[in-house]
Amino acid sequence: MLRSPSLFSSLTCAVGLALGSLLTSHRAPAQSQADIIGFYRFQAPAGVSLWTCALTTKKQFQGIPTGVTPGFTSTITRTGAGWTPDAFLLHYVEIIDGPWAGLVLDIVSNTATTLTVQGDIGQTGFNLGSTFTFVIRKHATLGTIFHRGAGLNAFDDSITLLYDNGSRKKFYYDDTPPGHIVGEDFTTLQDTEIVYPGQGMLLNCSGARSLTFGEGEVRYIKDTPTKIPLYAGKVNFVGLMNPVVAPDPLGPTSAGERSSLGSAALGLVNSNLSEYDDLISLYGRKNGIFSPLGLFYYDQAAGAIVDTDGVTASISIPHGTAFTIKPTGNGYYTQPAVIVGP
Description:
This protein is mainly β. The chain has two helices and 29 strands. A seven-stranded antiparallel beta sheet has the order 6-12-9-10-11-8-7, with no helix packed on it. It has a five-stranded antiparallel beta sheet with strand order 4-18-14-15-16, with no helix packed on it. A hairpin with a 4-residue loop joins strand 25 (289-299) and strand 26 (304-307). The longest helix is centred in the N-terminal third of the chain and has 5 residues, at 14-18. It is globular and about 60 Å long.
């Protein structure tokens, strides 16, 4: 399991340009709100760089439970839902209101009216109660994020994911029709490897690449908060769920395509980080080389993210890129919702 949840700005007409001029309102099923869809392009440099995909798959259901049964795995009941049994084996429930808005719970199994999810939603766990609103989405995977390779060079450019136990795995694009993501043996299919909302990815490209996210299933803008699990003592790749990026997020960008470390848009100061214990690390290009840009911590008294000298950080995160958090305990990094405007 990649991310076990049991461990616990406005978009205006300018967005149309940032999303490759493809930004339309899509009417989902009756239970769902209107979704905003699009794609965006960015420039990945030669060598190593950190990124995140700021898009998700569509909402397949939205509603309130008619009953809940908590436990190590919990059951959410929705009378009359009419789901196809075991249709959601590569899907998740996302809570979209209340204090746990943005929480992702993997679906273990489902019947026509019930969802079994990983994680205790009762009083001894997340304590969600029984009136929360949830949506069902299909997981984004390496195969759906890197649709037809998304611009990667086959077998030359690699994707690396980190896991909750501290391990990492490397993947490649195989352009043999119809195209697949494969493991380090260049043979084993890995299309269904899950990438959670806000989870970062390390790319290592043999040359500069123009990459595109949003041309397959993963093309929806997430207009709800995002809770990203952080694992104690492990390096966690994380990134902002904001798809408004410059073509080259690592190059010169406007303020609207960046969020400062202490900004409300980034959400770090409100994520209950352990003061001067949880390490935030930024990386980027220095003279064309992937290098650390600084180490940062949360200062509770200042209500700010500060550098190792205790000075409020003035650096910002280009949207579309990822950074790292290494916490001393398990927790969540909570991002506020991207506000979808007219």
